[in-house]
From TrEMBL:
Residues 63-334 form the CN hydrolase domain. The keyword Hydrolase applies. Pathway: Amino-acid biosynthesis; beta-alanine biosynthesis. GO terms for molecular function: beta-ureidopropionase activity. Keywords: Hydrolase. The keyword Chaperone does not apply. Belongs to the carbon-nitrogen hydrolase superfamily. BUP family. It is an enzyme of class 3 (hydrolase). It comes from Megaselia scalaris (Humpbacked fly). Its EC number is 3.5.1.6. One of its GO terms (biological process) is beta-alanine biosynthetic process via 3-ureidopropionate. This is Beta-ureidopropionase.
Length: 334
C-alpha cells in the first residue's frame, strides 16, 4: 500500500487511463447553487445516480442520499468548545450544500463532532465530548437544520447516558425531516485493534438492530467496525432496512483493502443500498500513546483515507470521494 498513499483517489487513476465516455455513466447534474456553495468552502461535491427501470403500476421512489466526510478543524489541544464549534460550523456549511443539492437524507462519519481520541486511552478530555442523544448540543443543532432543510439527518456522536451513571456509548441518532428525534442505535462491535482502543470507553451496544421509518425510506445504521460482520448487515436487512449507513473512522494499513468490498457485498447480499463514510486527515495528540501492537509510541492517528461511496443491491457502486479532502457525495436512488 505504500505507493498508493500518494494516490488521491482510485477514481483519479481510472480517469487518467480510461476513456471518458466509458467512465461514470451515471453522473448526476447538481444544481448550480450547490456547486457555488461547495466551491466557496473548498468542498469536493460529486453526484451520481442508480437508474432503475420504470414500472407501470408503481411510481418510482426517488431519494437523494448525502454522505459527508471531513477532517477535524482545530488542533486537538485547543479548548474543547472551540474544537466542537468549529466542526459544527463546518458540517452546518456542508449540510447547506446538501440542501442546495436537494438531498433528502444525509449522514456524517463516525463521531464527527470530535477528534477520534480513543487511540490515547485517556479519559480526559475526550469523554467530555460525550453528550445526550436527545438534547445534547449537536443534536439540538441538527434538529434545527433538519427542520429548516426538510432533511433526515443521521448523526454519529459519543453519547453520555446520564440516566444510567453517565455511561458512554458510541451512538448514531436519527433525526426526522421535521426536526424530531426518531431514535438511536449503539455500536455493537467494538474494535480492539491497532490504534482503535475503543473498548476502553464503551461496551457493545444494547439496541439490537433497529430500522427507522422515515419519510424517505426505512433506514438503519451499521456503525464502523460492525461492517466486518456479515450477520450484522443481515439483521438490518431482515428488519426491513432499505438503506444502511456505515459511518466509519478507519485508516489505511488496517482496512483499506476491505473498504471497497464490505459495504458493496452487503448491498448485494441483503438487497438494500449501503452508504460507507470514512473520515479524512491525520490527527495529532499531545501525549504519546501505544497500542499494544509492538509499534513505537507515537502522537499521530491516521491518515484516515476517506473514499466514501454508495453501493446498490445490483452490485453497482458510485466512485468514491477523495482519500484526503472534505467531501459531499450525493447519490440518487430509486
Ligand atoms: N472506528 C472503528 O470501528 N474503526 C475500526 C477500524 C476498522 O475496522 O476499519
Amino acid at each position: 500500500m505504500s505507493e498508493s498513499k500518494k494516490i488521491n483517489s482510485v477514481e483519479e487513476v481510472l480517469e487518467k487511463y480510461i476513456p471518458k465516455d466509458e467512465l461514470h455513466k451515471h453522473t448526476l447534474e447538481l444544481p448550480a447553487e450547490s456547486k457555488k456553495l461547495a466551491e466557496e468552502i473548498n468542498l469536493e461535491l460529486k453526484g451520481y445516480s442508480f437508474p432503475a427501470a420504470q414500472e407501470e403500476l408503481r411510481k418510482p421512489r426517488i431519494v437523494r442520499i448525502g454522505a459527508i466526510q471531513n477532517s477535524i478543524v482545530l488542533p486537538t489541544t485547543d479548548p474543547l468548545d472551540k474544537q466542537r464549534d468549529a466542526i459544527h460550523q463546518k458540517i452546518s456549511d456542508i449540510i447547506k450544500v446538501a440542501s442546495a443539492a436537494n438531498v433528502n437524507i444525509v449522514c456524517m462519519q463516525e463521531c464527527w463532532t470530535m477528534p477520534f481520541g480513543f487511540c490515547t486511552r485517556e479519559k480526559y478530555p475526550w469523554c467530555e465530548f460525550a453528550e445526550d442523544a436527545q438534547t445534547g448540543p449537536t443534536i439540538s443543532l441538527l434538529k434545527k437544520l433538519a427542520k429548516a432543510y426538510n432533511m433526515v439527518i443521521v448523526s454519529s456522536i459519543l453519547e453520555r447516558d446520564s440516566n444510567h451513571g453517565d455511561t458512554i456509548w458510541n451512538t448514531t441518532v436519527v433525526i426526522s425531516n421535521r426536526g424530531k428525534y426518531l431514535g438511536k442505535h449503539r455500536k455493537n462491535h467494538i474494535p480492539r485493534v491497532g490504534d482503535f482502543n475503543e473498548s476502553t470507553y464503551y461496551h457493545e451496544g444494547n439496541t439490537g438492530h433497529p430500522v427507522f421509518e422515515t419519510d424517505f425510506g426505512k433506514i438503519a445504521i451499521n456503525i464502523c467496525y460492525g461492517r466486518h460482520h456479515p450477520q450484522n448487515w443481515m439483521m438490518f436487512g431482515l428488519n426491513g432496512a432499505e438503506i444502511v449507513f456505515n459511518p466509519s473512522a478507519t485508516e489505511g494499513d488496517l482496512s483499506e483493502h476491505l473498504w471497497g468490498i464490505e459495504a458493496r457485498n452487503a448491498a448485494v447480499a441483503n438487497s438494500y443500498f449501503t452508504v460507507a463514510i470514512n473520515r479524512v486527515g491525520t490527527e495529532v495528540y499531545k501525549n504519546d500513546f501505544t497500542s499494544g501492537n509492538g509499534k513505537p509510541a507515537h502522537k499521530d492517528f491516521g491518515p484516515f483515507y476517506g473514499s466514501s461511496y454508495v453501493a446498490a443491491p445490483n452490485g453497482h457502486r458510485t466512485p468514491g470521494l477523495s482519500r484526503n479532502s472534505d467531501g459531499l457525495l450525493v447519490t440518487e436512488v430509486d
